[in-house]
Automatic annotation (TrEMBL):
General remark: The active site is a redox-active disulfide bond.
Pfam families: Biotin_lipoyl, Pyr_redox_2, Pyr_redox_dim
Stored CDD domains: lipoyl_domain
Domain Lipoyl-binding: 3-77
Cofactor: (R)-lipoate; FAD
Full protein name: Dihydrolipoyl dehydrogenase
Family as reported in the entry's similarity comment: Belongs to the class-I pyridine nucleotide-disulfide oxidoreductase family.
Annotated EC: 1.8.1.4
UniProt biased composition (Low complexity): 91-108
GO molecular function, one term: dihydrolipoyl dehydrogenase (NADH) activity
Length: 609
């Protein structure tokens, strides 16, 4: 037996943080990775785990003490005092001013289990094992390889790119572009240009979509080869803290071939993503699809029901409507496209009202039956005392009621990784799980489930790992500190927003100054025949620094990045308004909205004083 000091590991930017809870007592037997104390700064609170198992001989801290990196927490009697890497602190809460990689509610419901011991041999070894080949996974693998590490990437499907490239973001945007052009052409009749009714060749359209996907996924395969990243196709599941079993898959889906191999790793990054939620009472029928099935574009229905009024369902509804389908949408809440300000959504809804026969708000779906005529769906009010329509029959039903993380499908408990009841894996700002050498990124660590968030998290995880393995102190201190993450609905018109919304400001009592520029005053929007939109910016009423913004109109998603950059850089209304934007463009509406906020916009009527 030997006695060793258990010290505070590197906390990044946290120094002289207060101890708000002591979680162990003298004489207590503790396990490796068990939390010892909870500390709190002005940014967040976190639990600091033990690097070893043993018996607590003497506590060296008490409530109210201040600790930093290297502070001794306790003296521990251990059987083997050989040095081990210090585990990462686990966040207990995260300040609302910085988006947490995993919401606190998910983290609190994430019990950790002891890791299994794997005694078998390994077929492959590597510095970094990445589980999942989506935007987060391949970005993590490529960044780690670029930094000089030996990387193995495990992906269950035949091509890299995950849901986003194969059956999500990219194919949907390919179809949405076609739909937007079709709609735009129909508007040109009023300008004297008539192309006549479009002739739709569904097989050719599907081939166009597949060609777009193939070009991107093929490019990823080549980049993996160029970086010498080993790609293993199969279903990955942890069998120990440093081993992953890969069951080989073949064909177009996840059919197992019966072959297996085991990968041994020094570090791992979990990027296993999420899958569409399926309502248990929906029949298994080809006329009931999720987003993947909708993108397969088997045909164009006459009547289509969208379950869920979120972005994914409304985007796919746009495509099918333009191709000829009539739409119904059912949503349990009191509005569509939740998360965006209602004034933005109102513009979209007015433009898109002709697509819908029924918009059923505060309504839920309670039953469905497959009949020869179609899928018969029964509705009920979501609130007591409400009303619901009679059962309706549809040619196609799209389930778009959310996505569920895959945290409970990868054997995480065998590695000792904590997973919440919902399948989320809590991480700290370095994307580290409760197990010091295992990281997690993307959908699996929490909302928002967006590819652009996953990519940035991927770079952080890869850089921290490279810093630790290669002794690069700067890389080892990388952290996910994004102030804001933009959201975009690629409908027509597009709706994009970032940072504080006006609805949030009102609800939280935050005083803001609003700058709004209507596109009815935009020369470019008028020339395009698309002046229905507007650009809105919100500034702190005292400091005048930008807090958030929203845009509704064509190409809103292409422009919202400037607003995100302004928030990250702490720009104020003068900074943005005094920045010369090219004219005539839609983008100059951002500068004009900033000018409107401080009363200097000459493209709008004078403000009343």
């Amino acid at each position: 037996m030997a006695v060793m000091d258990i010290k505070v590991p590197d906390l990044g930017d946290f120094q002289d943080v207060g101890v708000i809870e002591v979680l162990v007592a003298e004489g207590e037997h503790i396990r490796a990775e068990q939390s010892l104390v909870t500390v709190e700064s002005d940014k967040a609170s976190m639990e600091i785990p033990s690097s070893h198992a043993g018996v607590v001989k003497q506590l060296k801290v008490k409530l109210g003490d201040k600790v930093s990196q290297g502070s001794v927490l306790l003296m521990l009697e251990v059987a083997d005092a050989a040095p081990a890497p210090a585990p990462a602190p686990v966040p207990a809460e995260t300040s609302a001013s910085k988006p947490a990689p995993a919401p606190a509610s998910q983290a609190q419901a994430a019990p950790a289990s002891a890791a299994s011991s794997y005694a078998g041999s390994a077929d492959v070894d590597c510095d970094v094992l990445v589980l999942g080949g989506g935007p987060g996974g391949y970005s993590a693998a490529f960044r780690a390889a670029d930094l000089g590490l030996k990387v193995v990437l495990v992906e269950r499907y035949a091509t890299l790119g995950g849901v986003c490239l194969n059956v999500g973001c990219i194919p949907s945007k390919a179809l949405l572009h076609v739909a937007a052009v079709m709609d735009e052409v129909s508007h040109l009749k009023s300008a004297g240009i008539d192309f006549g009714a479009p002739q739709i060749h569904i097989d050719q359209l599907r081939g166009h979509k597949d060609k777009v996907v193939g070009k991107l996924t093929g490019g990823l395969a080549q980049m993996a080869k160029m970086r010498k990243v080993t790609v293993l196709r199969g279903l990955g599941s942890f069998v120990g803290a440093k081993h992953l079993r890969v069951e080989e898959t073949g064909g177009a889906g996840q059919e197992k071939t019966g072959k297996q191999q085991v990968v041994q790793f020094k570090r791992a990054i979990i990027a296993a993503g999420s899958e569409a939620v399926h309502l248990p009472f929906m029949p298994k029928d080809p006329r009931v699809v999720d987003s993947t099935g909708a993108l397969a574009l088997a045909g164009v229905p006459k009547r289509m029901l969208i379950l869920g009024g979120g972005i994914i369902g409304l985007e796919m509804g746009t495509v099918y409507s333009t191709l000829g389908a009539r739409l119904d949408v059912v949503e349990m809440l009191d509005g569509l496209m939740q998360g965006a300000d209602r004034d933005l959504v109102k513009v979209w809804q007015k433009m898109n009202a002709p697509r819908f026969d029924h918009v059923m708000l505060k309504t839920k779906t309670v039953a469905a039956e497959a009949t020869p005529e179609g899928i018969k769906v029964t509705f009920a009010p979501a609130e007591e005392g409400g009303s619901a329509p009679e059962p309706q029959t549809y040619d196609l039903v799209l389930q778009a009621v959310g996505r569920s993380p895959n945290g409970r499908k990868i054997g995480a408990e065998q590695a000792g990784v904590a997973v919440s009841d919902r399948g989320f894996i809590p991480v700290d700002i370095q994307m580290r799980t409760n197990v010091a050498h295992i990281f997690a990124i993307g959908d699996i660590v929490g909302q928002p489930m967006l590819a652009h968030k996953a990519v940035h998290e991927a770079h952080v995880a890869a850089e921290v790992i490279a810093g630790e393995l290669l002794g690069d102190e700067k890389l080892a201190k990388a952290a996910f500190n994004a102030r804001v993450i933009p959201s975009v609905a690629y409908t027509d018109p597009e709706v994009a927003w970032v940072g504080l919304t006006e609805d949030q400001a009102k609800a939280e009592g935050i005083k803001v100054t609003k700058g709004l520029f209507p596109w009815a005053a935009s020369g470019r929007a008028i020339a395009n025949g698309r002046d229905e939109g507007f650009t809105k910016l919100l500034f702190d009423a005292e400091t005048h620094r930008i807090l958030g913004g929203g845009i509704v109109g064509t190409h809103a998603g292409d422009m919202i990045g400037e607003v995100a950059l302004a928030i990250e850089m702490g720009a104020d209304s003068v900074d943005i308004g005094a920045t010369i934007h090219p004219h005539p463009t839609l983008g100059e509406s951002i500068g004009m909205a900033a000018e409107a906020a401080h009363g200097a916009c000459t493209d709008l009527p004078p403000q009343r004083r």
